[in-house]
Amino acid sequence: MKKLLVVVMLTSMVLFSVGCEKNNVDTEQNTTVEDSGNKDTSETIDSEKNNQKQEEEKSNISEEKQEMKTLKIYYVNENAEIVSEEMKTENIDDTTVWNQLIEKGILTEGCKLNSCKIDENNKTIDLNMNTEVGERIRSMGTTGKDEILTCIVNSYLDTYNCEKLKLTENGQALDTGDTELDGYMNHF
Predict the structure, then answer these.
(1) What is the DSSP letter of 28?
(2) pLDDT tens-digit profile of 138-177?
(3) Which one, of 87, 97, 105, 91, lies nearest residue 129 by Cα?
(4) What are phi and psi of 166, to 5 degrees?
């Protein structure tokens, strides 16, 4: 009988010590503890990790959307009215606005942008254009000149959030045929 009692006590001690060790296992090891009616811990942890990955992916997508920049292009529509169109793009460089002005018919294919200097601190833009642009402007009547200048100036100022723009032709003040533009222009 004493032997039976010793065996029962030893078995109890072994079971007790195994039970204590189970409570000390680190939760990162994904051990499974079964409880009647509950899912095991590894499935719960895996589910949480999947949820975290989905949240991170959603966050990355929203960051990408935030990186999209707004391009605002002014042009003359079929009713001879100056209108604007906003477009979202990932990248805006010196020629992005210029190419859109060509696409909208404000400028021609021969119109080239020599340089574009943007001063974010002073909120100014200096555009140096080729002779073809000057010739296009000078070939227009007063309304046509005003439309071209308005579309160029407003498109650049709105896209780059600047306040003043200076237009030059091959580094010299732009001569429109009516006047010489030798300073900065504001939004029309």
Answers:
(1) G
(2) 999 999 999 999 999 999 999 999 999 999 999 999 999 9
(3) 97
(4) -115, 130
